[in-house]
Write a structure and sequence with these properties.
Blueprint lengths: L2 E4 L10 E4 L8 E5 L4 H21 L3 E6 L2 E7 L5 H6 L12 H12 L1 H4 L2 E5 L5 H8 L3 E6 L4 H8 L7 E5 L8 E6 L2 E6 L22 H15 L5 E6 L2 E7 L4 H17 L3 H4 L9 H11 L5 H4 L4 H4 L9 H8 L5 E5 L7 H8 L2 E6 L6 H10 L3 E4 L8
Parallel strand pairs: 6-7, 7-8, 13-14, 14-15
Antiparallel strand pairs: 1-2, 3-8, 4-5, 4-6, 9-10, 11-12, 11-13
């Protein structure tokens, strides 16, 4: 296939639209089902690069959930503990523990379900039946993977009344070293960002605490690879093999950190017993449950627990979850990793990260205030690596 005609570009008024290879060669993808659009392909190609690199660097199968050209999360194929399965709405998936790929997607989808609604999925390996069953019940626009088992393909083709977008990519495809794009009729050209992110990138530990366990190094690598394909500025919190908070596309780094931290905090709170024990009213669907949980954990829980509305949402009125209780629970969180795609210019980023349980940090370094940032990390006994590598992505 030399080219693929698209319905329209970013918006319906942007026609004509297509994808093609400028050198006249075949596209590295095959559309197995549906008709992916312009933004679908932007998500698909960025997402595929992320999971491919994540597997190459960590050795684990990987999955990501993309929306509007940034990952909502990415994860490797580690088994989920029981509370996380329930928090991710995956505790009833038969065979989940036997499919590392399904575990990776359950983590990625379950991290920020609000943002993942209508996602585009990328898998590092062949999509199996268990993963397909998990995807089948989620609201999603499409998927890209190197292969699909016959049963998985059959399941996925049944989504969206048969119109689900399924893309197979050639895993051996290597793009040209020079990439180009146009903005306002002007062509931009640059070398591809082929920098490999691995364990060796974390060798320059600048804090007094230099104890970096391998499991935490993997989390830092995961956060950095996630950032490599996230619209900048961006900051990523990670733990236990998954990104738990991505703050993307903010002009200020502290706003990136705050956004990522808020998402990470919400991910932790969703695993609290008060949330896991919520009893929803009959007929409340999965997306609605997610929205209800977010409101229950917000500063205005009465929107779903108030005297006049709780019966619509719950079979049993839930106990209040006070701001003080939530703060006390979050203070027990430790061992979280955070990566930044550029240096932290002020120590306020470290202070905010500390409030969300961060112990391990990876950032390029190079700020005129590096000494203040290091001092803040030392104050909280953090381990901080200066990678020397910026990871802007636009």
């Amino acid at each position: 296939m030399k080219q693929f005609e698209l319905k329209y570009g970013c918006n319906p008024n942007q026609k004509p639209a297509r994808i093609y290879m400028a050198d006249g060669s075949d596209l590295p993808v095959e559309i197995l089902n549906g008709r992916p659009g312009y933004i679908n392909f932007l998500d698909a190609f960025n997402a595929w690069q992320l999971v491919k690199e994540l597997k190459e660097s960590t050795g684990f199968v990987a999955a990501t959930s993309f929306k509007h050209v940034s990952p909502t999360s990415a994860a490797i194929g580690k088994k989920l503990p029981p509370d996380l399965k329930k928090s991710c709405f995956a505790d009833d998936i038969e065979g989940l523990d036997d499919s590392p790929l399904a575990c990776a997607y359950a983590r990625a989808r379950g991290t920020d379900r609000m943002s993942s609604f209508g996602d585009f999925i990328a898998l590092s390996d062949e999509c199996d039946e268990v993963t397909a069953k998990l995807i089948a019940r989620e609201v999603s626009d499409g998927i890209i993977a190197p292969a699909y088992s016959p049963k998985a393909l059959e399941i996925l083709k049944g989504k969206r009344k048969g119109a689900y977008n399924i893309i197979r990519i050639d895993p051996s495809y290597t793009p040209a070293e020079i990439e180009r794009k146009q903005v306002f009729g002007v062509t931009f050209e640059q070398g591809r960002n082929n920098f490999k992110i691995g364990r060796e990138l974390l060798g320059n530990i600048v804090t007094a605490n230099k104890e970096l366990p391998e499991e935490k190094a993997t989390d830092l690598i995961l956060s950095l690879i996630t950032l490599k394909y996230t619209q900048s500025n961006s900051v990523c919190f990670a733990t236990d093999g998954q990104a738990i908070g991505v703050g993307a596309g903010q002009q200020s780094r502290i706003h990136c950190t705050r956004l990522a931290a808020q998402k990470a905090d919400l991910w932790h709170l969703r695993r609290h017993e008060k949330v896991l024990s919520l009893q929803f009213a009959e007929g409340v669907g999965r997306p609605e449950k997610n929205n209800i949980i977010d409101l229950y954990l917000s500063d205005t829980p009465e929107e779903v627990t108030g005297e006049d509305v709780w019966r619509k949402n719950f079979a049993v009125r839930p106990e209040p979850f006070s701001r003080e209780e939530k703060a006390a629970y979050l203070k027990t969180v430790t061992g979280v990793s955070v990566g930044s795609d550029a240096f932290f210019p002020f120590a306020d980023n470290i202070e905010r990260a500390h409030q969300s349980g961060v112990t391990y940090v990876a950032e390029p370094g190079g700020s005129v205030r590096d000494d203040l940032v290091i001092a803040a990390a030392d104050k909280h006994n953090m381990v901080m690596c200066f990678t020397g590598m910026r990871l802007f992505h636009h």
